[in-house]
Amino acid sequence: MMLCWGLHLLHALSWLLVMSTQRVTSNCGPGFKKGKSGCDPCPDGEFKSKSSSSSFCTICDNCGEGTTQTSPCTKTSNIICSCREGFTRRHRFACICDKGSGVDSTGKCVKCEDGFFNNGVDEKTTCQKQKDCGPYGVKVPGSATSDVTCYTATEGGPGQTPLVTASSSSPTLKKSTSAITLATAASMNQQLIHRVNSSTLPSWVTTQSKATPAPASHYYNGMVALLITSFFLTILCFTLIFKLAAGLCLNRFKKQIVRADTVCRKPVEESGDKSSSSLVSSTDSSQTFEDV
Residues near 110 by Cβ (< 8 Å), separated by ≥ 6? Predict the structure, then answer.
């Protein structure tokens, strides 16, 4: 019995040894892929770094922005990229020039000098000069990553008097500003009328320019009155047309009655000898009967 178990165990071990040997011999080494008749080398631009039974190789990568190629792609290894001077690695094949730095003429990423800034992240951006606030002055100083903020004309910088605008929150200031605006508009209107009067335009043009335009309510009332008048005139016209049509129909009806009455009357006795007449009135017949 023990001998039988020993034989079965030996057979299983030998089978495992054969299978593992076949599996090892069926793999292709680095730089080769499984082909129809054996192992074929990886084509150009592809690589395979480990032994396997795969029939495919991996496509080589390319170095991205902000990087330089350190080692080319081979049959057994991928390309190796390194960041350019001053750049920060974003991922394996790309590097960036961070905010506060810019790319100089040599392609290096350097820190922005005083008075310059850069808030972008790119391999091509350069440091920009900060704006000049002029007489208004700097409200918020700039930095290597942001531009300066200047005072506006309405705010007024150091030593500047802020301008008064109509958006002030004081009601008295709003009223005074409105009054000044209206006075200025009235003055300009008077000057325009004076210029028109002093020109060579006809008198009727000058008179019309001096006339005060009617308020909008007058135009509205006039429009309402015009609509009401038009409505009543329309009703009157329809009434007259109806009466005229009714009169014409009544006259035609009367004529038809007269014609019908004429047709229904008794025949008129013909002139001449009564004995030769084909029609004798009922009165003559009665008179003849009495004579007899």
Answer: 86, 101, 102, 103, 104
Intrachain domains 26-95 and 97-160 with the same fold = yes
* Topology, domain 26-95: Tumor Necrosis Factor Receptor, subunit A; domain 2 (2.10.50)
Tell me, what's the pLDDT at 274? 45
3-state SS string for 88-156: EEEECCEEECCCCEEECCCCCEEECCCCEECCCCCCCCCCEECCCCHHHCEEECCCCCCCCEECCCCCC
Give percent of the chain above pLDDT 90: 29
> pLDDT-based confidence at 267, cuts 50/70/90?
low
Q: How many residues does the chain have?
A: 292
Domain ranges (residues) in the chain: 26-95, 97-160, 168-209, 224-258
Distance linking the first and last C-alpha atoms of the chain: 178
pTM of the entire predicted model: 0.40
The architecture that CATH gives domain 97-160 is Ribbon (2.10)
pLDDT in tens, 116-141: 999 887 767 889 999 998 888 889 99
- Count Cβ atoms within 10 A of the Cβ of residue 83 and give its class: 0-12 exposed, 13-18 middle, 19 or more buried: middle
| Chain position carrying tokens 């007024």 | 156
58 bridge partner residues: 47
155/165 Cα distance (integer angstroms)? 10
pLDDT at 183: 55
d(CA 82, CA 96): 12
Report the alpha-carbon distance of residue 288 to residue 292 in Å, rounded.
Answer: 6
